[in-house]
Amino acid sequence: MHYFTSLHHAPKILTIYSSLQKLEITNRYFLLQLRKKLELFWDFLCMLPNRRPASEKVRSLPGSMSSIRVDRTWMYKRLVPSRTTVTSEFIEGVRGFIEFALMQPDFVSNGSIRCPCSKCKNSSGFLEPHDIRSHLYKHGFMPNYHQWESHGESFVPISRPQPSTNRSDDIGSNRTPINPYRTMVLDAAGPSFNLDSDVFDMDVDEEEPPNQNAQEFFDMLKAAEEPLFDGCRTHSPLSAVCRLLNIKSESNMSDNCYNQILLFLKELLPEDAKLPADYYRTKQMVAKLGLGYEKIDVCQTGCILYYKDNKDRRDCPKCGKPRYKPKRRRSGRQKDVPYKVLRYFPITPRLQRLYMSTKTAEHMTWHWKYRREPGVMSHPSDGEAWKKFDQCHPNFASEPRNIRLGLAADGFSPYGNMAHPYSCWPVIITPYNLPPEMCMTSPYMFLSLLIPGPKSPGNNIDIYLEPLIDELKQLWVDGVETYDSHKKQNFQMRAALMWTINDFPAYGMLSGWSTHGLLACPCCMGKSKAFYLKHGRKGSFFDCHRKFLPMGHPFRWDRKSFLRGRVENSTPPHRLSGEEVWNKVCTLPKVCDHHASSKLPGFGDQHNWTKQSIFWELPYWSTNIIRHNLDVMHIEKNVFDNIFNTIMDVTDKTKDNLNSRRDVQNCCNRSELELLVLILFFETQYCSLLRFH
After folding, report:
1. DSSP-derived pairing of the beta strands 446-451 and 425-431
2. Whose CA is closest to 450, among 471, 472, 419, 429?
3. Is the terminal CB of the chain with fewer CB neighbours within 10 Å at N or C?
4. What is the value of pTM for the model shown?
5. DSSP assignments along 503-529, one per residue
């Protein structure tokens, strides 16, 4: 790349590459690497001020391009509503897009262009126009590709279509251009960030100025509109840095190469250009855009976290296994590599950013403003558990901006079923202050923990939850100063965890009551009437539900439809309050105090407790009516699968087998379902064999 010392040779770069393609070069790797270097250098040249190639004049030609740039809503209106056909508007727009892209010789390679579909995303090389067309018809455009910079359009802010009541003023009107990098900063603040009302004018008298964290974010928002140097209209320092980082990532550029390119750009740009000096300062510049996370080392067997008092230890105090993997020989500079790493995403800054947007901040008090009349439930705030919590903690309930949270956890295999089994457990936190249409939607579900595999954490999940529980305790006791952009004032935000959401196996891991065996039911507990099937050799909860019926219900006296000859006279089990459950578990050891695999005395006979759950460390946990919820989706799916497989007689999945028919004969009074053994047939066959011999 050092041969290109004169900028007037820049338009010939791709011509050089196309000429090299015509040569008989057998080293394909060399050709691909050369193309990457040429394209990389071309992107840098396009960033320079007033050094645009002459071919960019084509971009202002009248015709299809001018009509497309007025309104590009067609790009994301691909399909006809309620149908699978492509709209005629989208077909016409794709045709104009391909025509425009082919008119830019510097972005065309042998009649091929990059594919901007949602699958290729301009990173899968060059494709023929007919392939581009089929990809766009099938997958649509990649998100937020309003500026066609990878197909020859100059990088200037364009007008994204806005709803208007006067359609005659759409063409030729002076619209306010939208800076995509300003939008990126707004996106980092969270969903529903208002482009106009969220920009604070510090000259206007406000009730309170933003706190330090909020002010740093608003400063970055203003930096997104600051020019890179005096007279620059195409880039800000933030946009230039983000563009360079994107090129570094796509080209697999080393840090040293990135630093050298920054020095070269500083020589080309004016002296007042606001570019960082190196890669380290570049990362510092964009660090506030995202929300960071912490890496916490874990013992190989999940005994402890190297956290707090164990932070500096190099081996596990319980099992004695080392913290780090052994280093290779003669590698003194090699860093210590831990066996397991827990990734913890603090939830406090995420909750604070909900109040940085005036739109989201306004909705955070919806649960307090729009309570429904008694007997109607459209939101968790209308439920008994929410109201009981408010009665027990009036100080917390007096501030409607305090946040109620829910926790969801489940395991999944990130590598699919074809790879080696690996169970990874994400822990997600979601706020319930928002209205029903926003509550528990994807933008408002925050990943707080990523528990590593390869095996399920089991009862040791409490060890991984320790950083999150510590943060929840701090949010309850002390809170954190937060700036409310809707009311323009700072307040002390507090948060409380209302309940968890999980499937039945995860219920046992989080609550401490094992969901295996005859005492698996967390409602019946020790009063369960489950029994083992003699032939199926499994626990059965058949006929355990009649005790929940009213005392005079006729099903209680039915001796034929349920267990043979059984009449149900027992009453439903007493529903334990939080204080009563705490009295049962307060003497149980925590996971940190004993090995997770050791069973407590009386386990399986008198109780199914395995531990004292870490959630009992929360000061308010015993006042929650509902502490753990079951995910209905898992239950519905499992029940439906079993019924469907049995009715359709799916091989190896049906529950109607030989052992189940034999158990029906022992337990029920249903002769039509009993197994018939043809003894006479076997005796006849045996006698005929004796005569033959």
Report:
1. antiparallel
2. 429
3. C
4. 0.65
5. -HHHHHHHHSB--SSTT--TTTGGG--
